[in-house]
Known about the structure:
Layout: E1 9-12, H1 22-33, H2 42-49, H3 54-65, H4 71-89, H5 99-107, E2 112-115, H6 120-130, E3 138-140, H7 153-164, E4 183-187, H8 190-198, E5 202-206, E6 220-222, H9 230-238
Parallel strand pairs: 1-2, 1-4, 2-3, 4-5, 5-6
Helix pairs in contact: 1-4, 3-4, 4-6
Amino acid sequence: xxxxxxxxxxxxxxxxxxxxxxxxxxxxxxxxxxxxxxxxxxxxxxxxxxxxxxxxxxxxxxxxxxxxxxxxxxxxxxxxxxxxxxxxxxxxxxxxxxxxxxxxxxxxxxxxxxxxxxxxxxxxxxxxxxxxxxxxxxxxxxxxxxxxxxxxxxxxxxxxxxxxxxxxxxxxxxxxxxxxxxxxxxxxxxxxxxxxxxxxxxxxxxxxxxxxxxxxxxxxxxxxxxxxxxxxxxxxxxx
Length: 239
């Protein structure tokens, strides 16, 4: 089994990092908005909205278009999109290549968690289908913190819950109680990078959603999940 010198935990974003869901999210946003006379282009989604949770996407679109959707309308759109997502997720494999092998290896060495703007049931549907749910003692999902990304709240909450989680026995310097400065976040968006850095963590970005030059605020940038390694994480945690 591999050993680590400095790394104390790994916290993953979900959409665009573990699961190849961003194109699906875009399509479902488009399908939800189209009956309301709104066209959401791919360029606009990736440029302005990708890093937000569903309710914040709809609220941001309303602000940008000068619309005054009441909370009930936003909630209805969120429910509509979520139902469409569950139907699609249950019938299609969505994890990126290398995720099952990588997470299984790393979770045996350091505590792992998820900090995501996706809904908990959407995350768990995909993890359950892949047999990976048991590897994540902590999941922080949309609506479970006072603020979403780019605020640091999701990552701060994930680290707090890892520290409090019972039965975590890993060969880490912190004995399962990770410090932010020796924990690594894995992200795919500028919003997520900002959130993790504001939480005091090191960040690796994957170019699944944006080109490398857009992710330059990360501590390291890789092309795919398969380029990630325990050695890379440990090296970042030691800096």
